[in-house]
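Troubleshooting entry. The earlier prediction with D-glutamic acid gave an output that would not parse, so I re-checked the input for stray whitespace and re-submitted. Clean input:
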Amino acid sequence: MTTSSFNSVSPDRQQETSQLPIGVFDSGVGGLTVLRAMLQRMPGEDYLYLGDTARLPYGSKSRETIVRYSLQTTTRLVELGIKVLVIACNTATAAALPALRETFPNIPIIGVVEPGAQAACQASPSGRIAVIATPSTINGGAYQNAILRRRPQASVRSLACPLFVPLAEEGWFDGPIVESIAKRYLSPLFSDDNPPDCLVLGCTHYPMLASAIRTVIGPDPVMVDSAATTAEAVQSSLDSKNMAHPQQQDRTGVIRFFTTDDKGKFARTGSLFLGMTIPEDNVQLVDL
Ligand code: DGL
């Protein structure tokens, strides 16, 4: 249903819909950095999180494959019952947002690229912005376009960092190996006389590597990701559609987790990304 048709449904139906969970998906545990920001902002909402760990990484696959996977994960979440979908994956947002909106016109769908671009444009004084993301996100140009649409004079450098996702999924967030990989990727981006003053972490896995990245780029550039601005966008979308959970001020929401591979590994690494323990018995294995 569209916004206007939602507003025209009966009050009972609207009340029922507003009590449904927020659906969130990523190729793995990276999207938990976005869920974490949503929990801080909207702790009274319920959430369903699906990490398609069996097929990770999405970022090195073709657009067609990413669209197909994204349609499958979304279908599952919609079958389970959600009131809004958050694509907590830059790669899936960049490749599949239009296809998802076309296929599920009745569910509001929010991606992470526009909120990430907005965060970058707000944070960069000079407009010299570097974006790092998966190969698919960088090659598709979604970030570059979203930044330039907001700030046409910006100068955007972009770089794919494909090794960052497996490092983060492995729980290798810092230390000499991670730092030397970060150095190899990032030094060339920051080595001239006019380096960027803002680095966009354009993949939801990358915030976990922030301290290793910081040792390479130094203290000055602002580092931004899309987690906080996405959480803000989700909240204002729910408010504008009158879809926030009616008792959200008086309750703590429930989170259910789904993965397409090893539940134990999802719970272990996911706990680090979410910043709170995910009990393995709260993780369900699903086959898409
Ligand atoms: N977390 C995903 C993103 O934000 C990428 C991970 C992957 O390559 O599957 O792009």
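This one parsed fine. Residues 1-7 have pLDDT under 50 and may be disordered.
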